């Protein structure tokens, strides 16, 4: 539901901040005052193409801001979450229109594309009026409304699931068929695997190979280092570590009687002597394993070169070759059964199409039944709304296809004949904005409670009517407002009186320029506005009495 609308430097309005509630809100004003500005603002916030001419003269840009409560907009909330633009239980749309024709948009304070703005607005508001704003002109919207009115949600879900299952099988078949010559591909995979399977590729084996190569490549240096260290650690000369350690312990022992803590030092040196002995034995073992073997080094270098060659061939590191081997093995295993799988898929695809067809036919029956009911109810309503010879028809056309459609096997088109004897034409080809608005109102009332969009805007709905018909239009709008938020631009007092809230748009001169102002009317001001609409420039006592009577009978 729309809760707040702010306008800055938009057309002839310099600044307006409007609050909206539930029910029917009517907007009135003198001819040329700018009553449709609010509708236009919502149109631009719904993704309408930017128009530099809409920027107030002398301003750099126009700014539009709308806030919606999402309590009754589950689909909008879902869209926001899917696009990672959600921010609690409210939604803010903002758009700027520059005088040079540029435009920017934001959703919940985050930059958004105009396409995203339009997608989200489609879940929040429907504008019924001029053709370029009209939501019900799109076949997709017409089909969605018909399914919602008929309660086809479960049937449609079955059709979508069947179509998705068929699509998954068709994609699998296409992928297998795209492999080409199975035999050639299999031979290539076997060759690649044979090259890899001749190597030790697990992580430990690769690490050991690199370590062994480093050890043999540096064998001479390692042997010299170990021999020198062993000479000192074995104590074969006067400068050996064991002799030095023994001499140190002897010197300290002579003075231990004078300082007891030297006993602790001696104990530590004794432990060091044990560690030195163990280190010597380990070093002897290491030295015993070392040998300068040119043949072994050549073998290691050959293995290492082969490993690097394979890694370059597959564009991976040597450590990743095991993953390559697993992938190729998996593909070979899949390929071995590809021919058989292709034959299976042909049967499964045919069965999936049959399941989709059954589900689509069931949905089609429900749609045709609902189409008859919606056609009859809407035709009766447009007669009430002053189009006595008009006929409304929901045309359901079967479409033949070899590719299951998630939306079913029908094309839906709303058709209308505004006058008796005229052939029915597509709703999107109805020329009159007023007729289009009234037909849209009739459709929405006929489908009352089934359209998921929480806010509806009607512009020109009362164009070309008056008297009793105007009263009926007002009643239908008020009835629609019982379950939806409805905004209606009107010039008829019979319609305006039916509103739960009333805004007046009026012009005033400011610093040599004409400016539009929007004011929310209290009960007294509302009665005066209705009297003006009834009596013209000069408001009579009779007009004021008639206005009070209209307000008193708003719920009648």
At a glance:
With 556 residues, the protein is an alpha/beta fold. The protein contains 18 helices and 15 strands. Among the domains are: 1-124 and 498-519, Rossmann fold; 182-336, no CATH class.
Helical fraction = 40-55%
**Relative strand content:** 15-25%
Q: In order across it, which strands form the biggest sheet?
A: 2-1-4-5-6-7
The number of helical segments is 18
Number of strands: 15
Task: Please give the oligomerization state of what you see.
Answer: single chain
Mean pLDDT: 83
Question: What is the straight-line distance between the termini?
Answer: 26 Å
Radius of gyration: 42 Å
Class inferred from helices and paired strands: alpha/beta
What does it look like?
The structure is a single chain. Among the domains are: 1-124 and 498-519, P-loop containing nucleotide triphosphate hydrolases (Rossmann fold, 3-Layer(aba) Sandwich); 182-336, no CATH class. 53% of the residues lie in helices and 18% in strands. It is built from 18 helices and 15 strands. The chain has helices at 37-45, 74-82, 114-121, 139-150, 153-177, 182-197, 203-217, 219-234, 241-255, 261-289, 294-314, 321-336, 338-384, 433-446, 467-481, 493-496, 523-535, 541-552, and strands at 2-10, 13-19, 24-29, 61-69, 90-98, 103-107, 110-112, 125-128, 391-398, 410-417, 425-426, 455-459, 485-489, 501-510, 513-520. The strands form three sheets. A six-stranded antiparallel β-sheet has the order 2-1-4-5-6-7. Strands 8-12-13-3-14-15 form a six-stranded mixed β-sheet, sandwiched between helices. Strand 12, helix 15 (467-481) and strand 13 form a beta-alpha-beta unit. The radius of gyration is 42 Å and the shape is elongated. 32% of the residues are buried. The model has no long low-confidence stretch (mean pLDDT 83).
